[in-house]
Structure of ABC transporter ATP-binding protein:
Amino acid sequence: MLRTHLIDQHAQTFDPEHSIEQVLRNELGTVEEGRFRQVFANAGLDARQMATPFGRLSGGERLRATLAWLAGGPEQTQLLLLDEVNNHLDIAALEAVEQLLGQFKGALIVSAHDLDFLQALEFTHQFIWQPTGWRYEPWDDGGQ
């Protein structure tokens, strides 16, 4: 079975009342402690952020935590669907998200209006909607 995950612009993946650490330890199960800490350090999340309830984190922190969880879990996601995830991110958060997505080993389907964000992800192909239907073609930096 193909393991897929959808993340939208609000990145409300987890229970907003629980800390990232509580939720992710439950979700990740038996991941070794060192690996657990490294996955989230790579996402730029510190101990304070890990102890903060998910609902009180910024959009960028929620998104980075979700991407780290997807990358570090015992069963990696194979297809990641992203819907306007770069909305409302500051420059530092956007760069961290671009880096995390660049390390993602699965396939990405991304909906975004920010051409710079899309170019940073270095896609190989794109779907384009035209009145005659969808076209699948090599990525050309979004130039039409």
